[in-house]
Amino acid sequence: MAYEQLKLDNQLCFRLYTAARLTMGAYHPYLDPLGITYPQYLVLLVLWEQDKQPVNDIAHKLFLETNTVTPLLQRMEKAGLVKRTKGKEDTRQRIVSLTKKGIEMREQAKHIPDCLSNEIIQITGEEEEFVRMIPTLDKLIEGLKQQ
Amino acid sequence: MAYEQLKLDNQLCFRLYTAARLTMGAYHPYLDPLGITYPQYLVLLVLWEQDKQPVNDIAHKLFLETNTVTPLLQRMEKAGLVKRTKGKEDTRQRIVSLTKKGIEMREQAKHIPDCLSNEIIQITGEEEEFVRMIPTLDKLIEGLKQQ
DNA sequence: TCAATTTATATCGTTCACGATGCAAAAATA
DNA sequence: TATTTTTGCATCGTGAACGATATAAATTGA
User: In A, residues 69-128, which contact B (CB 8 Å cutoff)?
Assistant: First the structure.
């Protein structure tokens, strides 16, 4: 029967949606003391890997629209984590760079990934199946990226 | 080196977050014609399985807070999909029930799960590894549910 | 029975997320 | 070179998510 398919239990997307929300929630104890949110943490990860990037590059790496990232960066600028300067070759661009505070936060945050994986392992028992999920998720993301 | 851990590529949560957003986006072509959003679709799934539930039960099944679900239901009531009546035994409760429109939408929506799985299979080639992901996600959700 | 506590829902404020739209600068093309 | 198109970013409006708080009703317990 077709209605069977409409059961919540059958849905992969619901699990992704829920797991994503709850995992983000698990970052709270680590990000709250730093005064940042999970999306802001992602922006910092991008900038810690390479400082001074235009808005578009950051958005692209996070698979977000610029109209999501722009206000995010404005809030981060207000919080003193980044500054946004006009591009020199291309004046349409806004180059986002880390402030002293943004650079220093890297040191405070460097333990977070370990904390999170430990937590996940402790909570769920095993690590291997989560590692195995990564290439599958990458395939899904890659496939859905272009409509 | 500890900083290696801070690379975006290493992060499972980022993939969950991204996959969830993009998958929700894949529902747009099917939900837009019905005039509903993905979270509203989830509420309908819950109510199609069992009509007339208090807010709390719906929230619990979706792993959401009631302060997320209440405004969601208010919008759905305004859209004529559900109605919210005072509980009879417990007058604190609001019993949410489907309207005629909400009931009828089940028929229009019954093909959506098949469409989505076909899309995912077509996009990513294989089905099996996504099915395999489900119990792992359930384990993660179950573990993170209680703090 | 009456006060204290818990429960069910609602309201408020902030931050995302994103479609639609606007605008200026750059690039392409006539 | 002048015009058209594209690009990069910003703004606006709407709908989640959720922490904090409020409120009334139910429950507990003294």
Answer: 106, 109-114, 116-117, 120, 123-125
Q: Which residue of B has its CA nearest to A64?
A: B18
Residue entry with tokens 């229009």? B108
Q: Tell which residue, A130, A145, A28, has the closest CA to residue B18.
A: A145
Q: How far is CA B112 from CA A52, A64, A80, B119, B132, in A?
A: 43, 25, 45, 10, 21
Provide the CA A65 to C1' C18 distance, Å, integer: 7
Per-residue pLDDT reduced to its tens digit, A59-111: 999 999 999 999 999 999 999 999 999 999 999 999 999 999 999 999 999 99
A80: left (phi over 0), alpha (psi -120 to 50) or beta: left
**Residue at shortest CA–C1' distance from C20:** A67
Angstrom distance (rounded) from CA B74 to CA A91: 45
Supply the angle between the helices A128-145 and B128-145 in degrees, to the nearest 10: 120
- What's the pTM? 0.94
pLDDT tens digits, one per residue of B6-30: 666 578 999 999 999 999 999 999 9
Which residue matches tokens 């880390």?
A: A98
Element housing B95 (H / E): strand B94-98
Q: Which of A17, A113, A143 sits opposite B6 (nearest CB)?
A: A113
* Smallest CA–C1' distance to D17, residue: B68
E strand or H helix that includes residue B23: helix B12-31
